[in-house]
Amino acid sequence: MSEQLACMVSDLEPGSAMDVELTLASGSDTPVAVVRSDDGDFYAIGGMCTHGEVPLGEGDVEGCFVECWAHGSRFDVRTGVPDELPAVTPVATYPVRIDGERVLVDVDNPKS
Asked: 10 in helix, strand or coil?
């Protein structure tokens, strides 16, 4: 597999996120958080907080960060790196491509 349809551009307003399940080439599903930053850019990161296994697509988006609602860890959606404790382990980041109205994510070739 390569790029997969994660959502439509119109599904996310700037400053919001959503959870999706995408399929790896191995056939297993993986949780992904699709994030639209405040400036309107799209990002895809590993969907679970590395501290508490909480879905990041349910978190608050501020600028290029998504905050886990359970314990307040924030992850940079560009790099996957947390900048707020208690999380210390980064989440994966995935390539995103906009094709018209479609938001495509490649979970088989993580950037980090």
From this structure: helix
